[in-house]
TrEMBL record:
It comes from Lophiotrema nucula. The lineage of its organism: Eukaryota, Fungi, Dikarya, Ascomycota, Pezizomycotina. One of its GO terms (molecular function) is transmembrane transporter activity. The chain crosses the membrane at residues 46-64, 76-93, 99-124, 136-158, 164-187, 207-226, 238-256, 276-295, 315-333, 340-359, 365-390, 402-422, 467-488. Keywords: Membrane, Transmembrane, Transmembrane helix. PANTHER family: LOW AFFINITY AMMONIUM TRANSPORTER, MAJOR FACILITATOR SUPERFAMILY MULTIDRUG TRANSPORTER MFSC. InterPro entries: MFS, MFS_dom, MFS_trans_sf. SUPFAM superfamilies: MFS general substrate transporter. Gene3D superfamilies: MFS general substrate transporter like domains. It is found in: Membrane. It is a multi-pass membrane protein. Its main location: membrane. One of its GO terms (cellular component) is membrane. Residues 6-490 form the Major facilitator superfamily (MFS) profile domain. This is Major facilitator superfamily-domain-containing protein.
Length: 497
C-alpha cells in the first residue's frame, strides 16, 4: 500500500469504532431528555436504552467474526453498515411508539456494530504486517473509542437540546450509508478460502450453528435477567428462571466448542493463559467503565441539574486524553510486558470510579469530576489495544475475526452486564436509604425521577455511590488479576533464562 492508501484504509476501518461508541452515547448524553419524553421515573428503565445496545453488540460479535473469516471480512463489513443504517433510521421513528419498542430498536441497532467491529479489527490484522504498522492500526482503532463517545455525546445532546432527539438517529443512518460506499471503494478485495472441503468438490464455509445458538441464546438470557432484575426485583420467578436457563445454555456452549464442532466460534482449547488473563481484565475493567459512564451522566444531569449539552462539554476531555493514552500503548507495549500495561489500565478503572463514588454533590467540576474524566480514557485505551494486539498475535491469520470477536465481545457485553449489576445495587441501596429515613413506599419507586427535592436527591445519591463502589471493586479485582499475571510472567521469563 502507498502511504495515502494506508491512511485511507486505517480511517475507513477505525470509523467503525468511532460510530459504534457514538451510537452507544446517543441515549447516554440526552438521558434526562429521553426520561421526560417517555415519562420514565426510574434509572433501571433508562439503563435499558444503553444496555440493549451493548447487549446486542457483545452477543452477536461472536458469530460475526466467524462469518467474516468464512465469507470475507469486507463483505460482512459492508453488510454491517447497511444494517446499522437501517436500524438507526427505524430507531429514530420509534418516537411514535413506547419505551419497549425503542429498547428493541436499540437492540437491533446494536447488531450493526457487532458486524462491523470484529471485521474491522480483522481487516487491520490481515492487511497490515506484524509489527509497528499493525500496532499503530490497533492504537488508532482504540483511540476512536473516546473520540466517538465524545462526538456521539455532543451531537446527541446538541440535537436533543436545540432540535429533536430522533434527528441523531436519522443523521447517523445517512452517515452509515456514506461510509458503506467509501468502504466499498477503499477496502482491498480479499480472497477467502474456507478451511474445509465439501463433498460437492468445492470449498464451502462451515458455520458453528450449535455454538451460535447456545452461545447467543445464553448470553442474551443472562444479560436480560441482569438488566431486568433492577426493575422487577430478583424475587420475580422468571428472573431466576431466565438466568438459570442462560447459564445452562452457556455450559452447553462450552461443551459444544470443546467436543462437538471442528471449527468452534471460540477456540477454547487454543487459548493461551495470556489471552485468558487479558480477557478477564477486559471484562471486569469495562464492566466498571460502563457503570462509570452511565452514572456520570445521571449524576451531572439529574442530581446537579446540568443540561445534556453542558454535560457533553464536561465529558469532552476524554477525546484528548484518549488519543494520548491510545498512542502511548504502542510505546508501552514495546518497553513493558502487556500485563504491566493491563495493571496500569486496571488502576485507572479503579481510581476513576473511586473519585466519582466519593464526590460531594455540590463540589466544583474541576475537582474530582474533571480528574476522573481525564484518567478514565487511560483505562479504556491502554486495555483495548493491548488486548487486541495480544489476541491478534496469539491466533493465525485466518482466525483474525475470532481474535477480534473475543476482545470486542468482552468489551461490549461487560458494559451491559455491569449496568445490570449496578442497577440492582442502586435500587436496593435506595430502598434501604429510604427506609432508614422513615420513608416506607411499599412496592412503589422510593425515588421517582420527577421528584427532585433535597430528601429524594440525598437518597438517590446514596444509590449512585453504591453503584460506584461496586465499579471501584471491579477495578480493584482487575488490578489483582493483572498483578498476579505480572508475577507469573516474570517467573516464566526467569525459567526460560
Amino acid at each position: 500500500m502507498s502511504k495515502s492508501r494506508e491512511v485511507a484504509f486505517i480511517s475507513i476501518t477505525c470509523i467503525a469504532q468511532l460510530l459504534s461508541l457514538g451510537a452507544l452515547n446517543q441515549t447516554v448524553a440526552p438521558v434526562m431528555v429521553l426520561a421526560d419524553y417517555f415519562h420514565i421515573e426510574d434509572y433501571g428503565t433508562l439503563s435499558w436504552f444503553s444496555a440493549a445496545f451493548s447487549m446486542s453488540v457483545g452477543t452477536f460479535i461472536l458469530p460475526a467474526g466467524r462469518l467474516g473469516d468464512m465469507y470475507g471480512h469486507k463483505r460482512v463489513y459492508l453488510f454491517g453498515w447497511a444494517w446499522f443504517a437501517l436500524w438507526s433510521l427505524v430507531t429514530g421513528f420509534s418516537y411514535a411508539s413506547n419505551i419497549i419498542f425503542f429498547s428493541i430498536c436499540r437492540a437491533f441497532q446494536g447488531i450493526g456494530p457487532a458486524l462491523l467491529i470484529p471485521n474491522a479489527v480483522a481487516l487491520i490484522g490481515r492487511t497490515l504486517p506484524v509489527g509497528q504498522k499493525r500496532n499503530i492500526g490497533f492504537a488508532c482503532f482504540g483511540a476512536c473509542g473516546p473520540l466517538g463517545a465524545t462526538a456521539g455525546a455532543v451531537f446527541a445532546a446538541l440535537l436533543a437540546d436545540l432540535a429533536w432527539w430522533p434527528w441523531s438517529f436519522w443523521i447517523l443512518s445517512i452517515v452509515c450509508v456514506v461510509v458503506m460506499v467509501l468502504a466499498y471503494i477503499i477496502l482491498p478485495d480479499e480472497s477467502v478460502a474456507a478451511p474445509q472441503l465439501k463433498t460437492s468438490g468445492r470449498q464451502r464455509p462451515n458455520f458453528d450453528y450449535w455454538g451460535s445458538i447456545t452461545g447467543v441464546s445464553g448470553l442474551v438470557l443472562i444479560n436480560f435477567a441482569l438488566n431486568q432484575a433492577p426493575l422487577v426485583r430478583w424475587t420475580e420467578p422468571y428472573i431466576g428462571s431466565l438466568l438459570g436457563v442462560g447459564v445452562l445454555l452457556m455450559v452447553a456452549f462450552i461443551l459444544v466448542e470443546l467436543y462437538a464442532t471442528e471449527y468452534p466460534l471460540i477456540p477454547i482449547r487454543g487459548l493461551q493463559k495470556d489471552a485468558i488473563f487479558a480477557l478477564t481484565c477486559i471484562f471486569v475493567g469495562w464492566s466498571s467503565h460502563g457503570i462509570w459512564a452511565y452514572y456520570l451522566y445521571l449524576f451531572l444531569e439529574h442530581l446537579r441539574g446540568h443540561s445534556a449539552l453542558l454535560t457533553a462539554a464536561e465529558t469532552s476531555p476524554v477525546a484528548i486524553t484518549g488519543l494520548l493514552f491510545a498512542f502511548s500503548t504502542v510505546w508501552l507495549i514495546k518497553r513493558f510486558n502487556v500485563s504491566f500495561v493491563m495493571f496500569i489500565s486496571m488502576t485507572f478503572f479503579m481510581v476513576g470510579a473511586l473519585l466519582l463514588g466519593t464526590m460531594p454533590l455540590h463540589q466544583t467540576y474541576w475537582a474530582q469530576t474533571f480528574v476522573s474524566i481525564l484518567i478514565m480514557p487511560g483505562a479504556m485505551n491502554l486495555s483495548y489495544p493491548a488486548a487486541s494486539i495480544l489476541m491478534s498475535s496469539a491466533l493465525p491469520k485466518e482466525k483474525q475475526g475470532i481474535a477480534a470477536s473475543l476482545v470486542s465481545t468482552m468489551v461490549n457485553y461487560s458494559i451491559s452486564c455491569g449496568l445490570g449489576f449496578a442497577g440492582t445495587i442502586d435500587r436496593y441501596v435506595i430502598e434501604h436509604a429510604a427506609r432508614k429515613r422513615g420513608w416506607r413506599p411499599g412496592d412503589g419507586n422510593p425515588a421517582p425521577l420527577s421528584d427532585r427535592g433535597p430528601r429524594t436527591t440525598a437518597i438517590r445519591l446514596e444509590g449512585l455511590r453504591g453503584a460506584y463502589y461496586f465499579a471501584t471493586g471491579l477495578g480493584a479485582l482487575g488490578m489483582v488479576v493483572a498483578f498476579f499475571h505480572i508475577i507469573v510472567s516474570r517467573r516464566r521469563e526467569r525459567g526460560k533464562a
